[in-house]
Specification:
heterodimer; A: four-stranded antiparallel β-sheet; globular; B: 107 residues; mainly beta; four-stranded antiparallel β-sheet
Chain lengths: 118, 107
């Protein structure tokens, strides 16, 4: 059974940092691109970042470019999202997601809530 | 950035009725259009990918069609569990984008 389990969310002050983790199991992690998608409370879905299967290629939404960094450890079957200089508008549930086809997310985690507030 | 516009924002129907949801792209996405269903407190669930391919385990009452800039998700006969929010999503160009969602509610 495929599982994606996010962790690391919580309450942080504006300007602060958090690192999210997503532990994967049940599929060949090292062969799949991984993605982070977020959803602000009561709002729609926004694609945040993606990373290639070997970690050599990354991409970011303009709203997080320069502040967020995606990375992965294929030995640990884990993808990360390092978030710096957090803003109130970064408050959201963050999902990690993946699938056989790049950009088609058949696998989703349960999400982790990040709240940026003073 | 490719903007996806979904219509209607809210669709009120009864179980057994047919639902037709639309998604229009600001530029061609070829056939790289997917549909997701999301229920409160849950992660999205992939229904359709690349316009018309049903994901594993998705009932045949869900179908997708379209090409270029205009796409449709059809639910042929609504079941009680189908009432949820539906999002379209393109993977033609980065950043991948979602539509704003259509809420399918019970009439």
């Amino acid at each position: 059974e495929v599982q994606l389990v996010e962790s690391g969310g919580g309450l942080v002050q504006p300007g602060g940092s958090l690192r999210l983790s997503c532990a994967a199991s049940g599929f060949t992690f090292s062969s799949y691109w991984m993605h982070w998608v977020r959803q602000a409370p009561g709002k729609g879905l926004v694609w945040v970042s993606r990373i290639s299967s070997d970690g050599s290629r990354t991409a970011y939404a303009d709203s997080v470019k320069g502040r967020f960094t995606i990375s992965r450890d294929n030995a640990k079957n884990t993808v990360y999202l390092e978030m710096n200089n957090l803003r109130a508008e970064d408050t959201a549930v963050y999902y990690c997601a993946s699938g056989e086809k790049i950009g088609v997310n058949v696998y989703w985690g349960q999400g982790t809530l990040v709240t940026v507030s003073s | 950035e490719i903007v996806l516009t979904q219509s209607p924002a809210t669709l009120s129907l009864s179980p057994g009725e047919r639902a037709t949801l639309s998604c229009r792209a600001s530029q061609s996405v070829s056939n790289y259009l997917a549909w997701y269903q999301q229920k409160p407190g849950q992660a999205p669930r992939l229904l359709i990918y690349d316009t018309s391919n049903r994901a594993t385990g998705i009932p045949a009452r869900f179908s997708g069609s379209g090409s270029g800039t205009d796409f449709t998700l059809t639910v042929s006969s609504l079941e009680p569990e189908d009432f949820a929010v539906y999002y379209c999503q393109q993977r033609s160009d980065w950043p991948y984008t979602f539509g704003q969602g259509t809420k399918l509610e019970i009439k």
